[in-house]
Write a structure and sequence with these properties.
6-stranded mixed sheet, two-stranded antiparallel sheet, binds guanosine-5'-triphosphate, P-loop_NTPase, Signal recognition particle receptor subunit beta, receptor, Small_GTPase, Gliding_Motility_GTPase
């Protein structure tokens, strides 16, 4: 069977769990770009990503998935743009309880689709929310242009849930997404 490399990018606001997700998936093999967080107003956590986090995952069907985690801070939006330009799939992570979650998610999805290579975008609800809240978010999001995309949910700290998410997005990628 042909061996393919599929690149996926994790995007979303500061502190949503992009680095945590890659750590869950790849453990000590994850390559992180963490530095002390000097913007505690934006998020109280101790470290934040500059550059790109990276992890590689072997999927059941012999495909390799490369996962890149973007910095969430807006000052590094050029890094996100560059990562998206290399990717075939994107996961937009969101806490649907955040103010402006809908608008921010829609803006990120639209940015993803501006990247010529990018073929699949899914939204990942990454904080606990009821089924009704998730349903309402999904319906409202689908009213934004280009935003009728699959909406999944998973805890970034949970390796099994993150693997399931990656399996779904990998299965949606067409075969010609070889590197
Ligand atoms: N309470 C709670 N915390 C969570 C949950 N999911 C992730 N976290 C925590 O949220 C934090 C996420 O931090 P990071 O993984 O560094 O976030 P990031 O998206 O990489 O952030 P930047 O790189 O700064 O953009 C970690 O401390 C996680 O343990 C959750 O469902 N509930
Ligand atoms: Mg990070």
């Amino acid at each position: 069977m042909q061996h393919l490399i599929k690149r996926i990018v994790l995007v979303g606001p500061m502190g949503i769990g992009k680095t945590t997700a890659i750590r869950s998936l790849c453990g000590s093999l994850a390559i992180e770009c963490e530095v002390p967080n000097l913007d505690k107003q934006a998020h109280a956590k101790e470290t934040t990503t500059v550059g790109l986090d990276f992890g590689e995952i072997k999927l059941d069907d012999n495909d390799t998935l490369q996962v890149y985690g973007c910095p969430g801070q807006e000052r590094y939006d050029f890094v996100r743009e560059w990562a998206l330009s290399l990717a075939f799939g994107a996961i937009v992570m969101v806490d649907i309880h955040e103010p402006h979650a809908l608008e921010h998610t829609a803006t990120l999805i639209q940015q993803c689709f501006r990247s010529p290579k990018l073929q699949v975008v899914v939204v990942l609800i990454s904080r606990p929310a009821s089924a009704a809240q998730q349903e309402m978010f999904t319906v409202r999001l689908s009213n934004y242009p280009q935003c009728a995309v699959p909406v999944l949910s998973a805890d970034p700290r949970n390796p099994a849930q993150m693997l399931d998410t990656l399996d779904i997005i990998a299965a949606m990628l067409p075969d010609e997404t070889a590197a």
